[in-house]
Design goal:
single chain, 225 residues, alpha/beta, Rossmann fold, Arc Repressor Mutant, subunit A, 2 domains, five-stranded parallel sheet, four-stranded antiparallel sheet, 8 helices, 39% helix, elongated
């Protein structure tokens, strides 16, 4: 998947580029509006991440011009302007989504994944499967090898997050933001304690563990060793 970032803040652009490349995306960068407009109009990009406030040509104008030219790439607008009227203006200009600054990288990544899934008709995902582990998101039930597992609400949310990021390394920061809604580290062992309790319910008594510790990085839910 190819992504074009149009962002004049070079530190922010470098941060986004590094993070997205780590998740397997091919990323290009334009540092000002006119360059971004040219690349977006001539390149074959799956997604455009456009800062609203840009030198030469602002993000809203870029989106309008691209839509007039028939460019159908998905567009995610980033802006420090986060009021309802600001978001409405961006969406009416032709953007597919609008994310106000400051934002968590995990939310940006989730929005990107959601936008890229819109390529064709999709059915709402109601079940998650990893190996012999199954989660029913509607019934709020979990089974492993057909055996029902009783989880508390926070445990269920933690497992859902891990399953949605299966085979990936999930960092402490990602869990704090995605499960606890913390945008800071409270300096407690809350994550370790919850992971330990979840392991007791998910892995104890089964031949192969699903929850793995990645030393110095975080955790990974995967069906293979």
């Amino acid at each position: 998947m190819r992504i074009l970032i149009i962002e004049d803040d070079r530190e922010m652009a470098a941060y986004l580029t590094k993070g997205l490349k780590e998740h397997g995306y091919t990323v290009d960068h334009a540092s000002e509006g006119r360059e971004g407009l040219f690349l977006a109009a001539t390149g074959d990009f799956d997604l455009l991440i456009i800062d609203r406030m840009l030198p030469n040509t602002d993000g809203i104008t870029i989106v309008k011009l691209l839509r007039e030219q028939g460019v159908n790439s998905r567009v995610l607008l980033l802006s420090a302007l986060g009021q309802v009227d600001d978001r409405v203006t961006g969406l009416k200009a032709g953007a597919d989504d609008y994310l106000a600054k400051p934002y968590a990288f995990s939310e940006l990544l989730a929005r990107i994944e959601a936008l890229l899934r819109r390529e064709g008709p999709e059915e709402e995902q109601t079940r998650l499967h990893i190996g012999d582990l199954e989660m029913d998101l509607i019934g709020r039930t979990v089974k492993r090898a057909g055996q029902a597992i009783d989880l508390k609400p926070r445990e269920f949310r933690l497992l859902e997050y891990l399953m949605r990021h299966a085979d990936q390394v999930v960092t402490r920061t990602m869990l704090l933001e995605g499960v606890w809604d913390y945008h800071f580290d409270p300096q407690t062992n809350v994550i370790d304690a919850q992971i330990s309790r979840l392991r007791q319910k998910i892995d104890k008594g089964f031949d192969k563990p699903l929850i793995h510790t990645v030393r110095g990085a975080g955790y990974s839910l995967r069906a293979t060793d």
